[in-house]
Design a protein that fits this description.
The protein is α/β, with parallel strands linked by helices. The protein has 2 domains: 95 residues, Translation factors (Elongation Factor Tu (Ef-tu), domain 3), CATH 2.40.30.10; 158 residues, Rossmann fold. Helix content is 22%, strand content 34%.
């Protein structure tokens, strides 16, 4: 396990990805490593406004010329994310991370991996895709969104997927880009047609994750889900992000997750 650190960071870059989402790079001279699926807690403003840090999946980490750059992809939904979107280059913030556990990236015996991202669930899967491509591990990437304008970083996803010899499959709820319908529907059609995967890794809204868990169970497919529970502390103290496991225990997803094997979660996740 990589030890978490509370780091002073500065905004090195910020770019819009869609009408609602943006990318932000946080730089620090301190070394930091992370695995795909882990996250960080960001203090989005000065002092105690807002009081709580916000949790964001890590989309990538790179170190060059003595500077570590931590990439986040954020959807503007409230005060904290709005402050980040308006943060100027050079703004000083704090980042606590890396937190939680990550995806299992080792290749399996049953074929390539299936990476399934819904909307702003893309960051940990894009991170995973680029790591897997660098390791020569085969995968297909399924990228879904409500509409074409919300499909994030499509060309970067395509580049990583093609580097691994895989296929990028896009779908939108309104049919404005890629296949029409939800992204789990696109995966189901391929599984039904005989496509086989060693494991599915997924992050996105709860309905997508539940559909993926049902699909995995029906096809005998191992699946790991990165849950997007509301987090107040990120270290298992506040218990704001508890989830129920199959054995009946309630555990903080920030500490025992956010990535869980689908089979380890309570039955309601696959019903």
């Amino acid at each position: 396990m990589i030890a978490r650190r509370d780091l002073a960071v500065r905004v090195a870059a910020r770019t819009d990805l869609s009408p609602t989402c943006f990318r932000i790079a946080l730089a620090t001279p301190e070394p930091l490593t992370a695995t795909p699926g882990q996250f960080g807690m960001v203090a989005c403003g000065d002092g105690f406004d807002p009081l709580l840090r916000r949790a964001f999946s890590i989309a990538g980490v790179a170190r060059r010329a003595g500077i570590t750059s931590v990439e986040l992809m954020v959807k503007e939904v409230g005060r904290g994310s709005a402050l980040l979107r308006r943060a100027c280059v050079g703004t000083e913030l704090r980042l606590l991370g890396p937190l939680g556990n990550g995806f299992t990236l080792s290749p399996g015996d049953g074929g390539p991996l299936a990476l399934v991202a819904g909307g702003i669930g893309l960051p940990p899967l894009l991170f995973a895709a680029e790591v897997l491509a660098g390791q020569g591990v085969a995968f297909d990437l399924y990228l879904g969104a409500a509409t074409a304008s919300e499909l994030l970083d499509v060309e970067r996803c395509r580049a990583a997927t093609e580097a691994a010899g895989g296929k990028l499959v896009c779908a939108t709820d309104d049919g404005s880009a890629g296949e029409a319908g939800v992204i789990t529907g696109a995966l189901e059609r391929r599984l039904t047609a005989g496509r086989r995967y060693a494991r599915a890794l997924a992050c996105g809204p709860d309905p997508m994750l539940r559909a993926l868990a049902r699909l995995a169970r029906a096809h005998g497919l191992d699946a790991e889900l990165s849950l997007e529970e509301p987090m107040g502390c990120g270290v298992g103290v506040c218990l704001g992000c508890v989830v129920e496991l199959a054995d009946g225990r309630m555990v903080p997803s920030c500490k025992e997750g956010p990535v869980f094997p689908a089979a380890r979660l309570a039955a309601r996740w696959s019903q």
